Amino acid sequence: MTEFAIETVCLSKIFGRITAVAGLDLKVVTGTVHGFLGPNGAGKTTTIKLLLGLLKPNAGSIRVLGFEGGGKRIDIRRRIGYMPELPKLPFFLKGRELLEIYGDIYGLPKKERSDSAKRLLEMVGLSDRAEDRIAHYSKGMQQRLGLAQALIGDPELVILDEPSLGLDPVGMVEVRGIIKKISSEGRTVFLSSHLLNEVQQICSHVTVINRGSKMIEGSIPTLLEKLSESNKITVQLEKVSDDIVKALEGLNFVEEVKREGDKVQILCSKTGDFRADVSRTILDAGGLIIGMRVDERNLEELFLELIKGRT
Fold first, then answer.
1. Within a 13 Å sphere around the CA of 2, how many CA atoms are in the beta-carbon half?
2. What torsion, rounded to 10 degrees, do the Cα atoms 99, 102, 104, 110 define?
3. What DSSP character marks residue 309?
4. What is the pLDDT of residue 311?
5. pTM summary value
6. Radius of gyration of the chain measured on its C-alpha atoms
7. d(CA 62, CA 60)
8. Residue 7 burial (CB < 10 Å; 0-12/13-18/19+)?
9. With 80 as the cut, is the pLDDT of residue 83 above it?
10. What is the DSSP letter of 133?
11. Which domains does the chain have, with CATH numbers?
12. What are the tens digits of pLDDT across the range 27-55?
C-alpha cells in the first residue's frame, strides 16, 4: 500500500485564457477522509476530472494509488469509485437495476453483481426501495444511490464531488453517516465540498484551494493551530482586582489582559489549553471564579480568512 492515494505535482489545466488549475501540489494520505475545499469556481471539479483521466493536464504529474497518470489508466480507474456533483441517474430504472447494470459494466458475474447491489442498497438505507423507480426517489435518496453506485467494484479510492449539495439537514446527516461507513472499511475518501461544517465533522485532513492554487493543506487540527488567532479566555469573577490583573499579566503565555466590569479577557500569545493555569493564578491572587469561556476559531473562520487574503 502506498503512502499517498493521490499525489499531484505542479498540476495545471488551462481553458483558453482561463487557468482552472494552477501548479497544484496535492497529497492525500491513504486511508484518510480528505476534504477538498474551495469556493465555487476554485478548480475543485476540474482537479477531480484530471485525477480521473477525464481531462488532460497542460502541465504537471498525477499519481493515483501509486501509479503515474491516475485514472487515465483503465486498470487504475477500475479501482476508483466516483460520484459526480449532482449525479444524473436514469429515472426509468429501479434502484437495484441501476447498481446491477454498473456491476455488469465492471465485469462482475451475475450472482456477484446481484449480491453487491443488495449489500450496497442495505448500506445506504435503500433496501426497502430497491424495486422502486428512481423517478420516485427523493433528492436525498438519489444522493445515497449515487454513493452506492460509486462503491460498485469495491474501489480502494472513493472520490465524491459535493455529495451533500442541495440536501436538507436530514439528508446531510444520512450522507455523512454513509461516508463514515465507507471510511471505516479502510477506503480512502477524497471529498470535494464548500460546506465547511460538513467537512469538519467527517474529514481528518483538508486541502483548501482558490483560483486553482493550493492555499494550505494538512490535518484539520494542525491547520487550525497554524492559522488561528491566539485563544481568548474570558473569565467572570466575583470581583476584579489589580492584584488579579497583575498576576495574569505575569503568565508567560499572556499577551494582554483587559478588564470589563466583573470580567477579564485574556489574550494568549500562543495556542493551547491554559484554563488550569489561569484558574490557579486567579485563586492564588484571591479571586473567585464565577465562569470561564475559551473562544477558539473553527474551520469556517480559517477558510474565510484564507479566501479573503487571496481575493
1. 15
2. -10
3. H
4. 46
5. 0.76
6. 25
7. 7
8. buried
9. yes
10. B
11. 4-226 (3.40.50.300), 230-295 (3.30.70.100)
12. 999 999 999 988 888 899 999 999 999 99
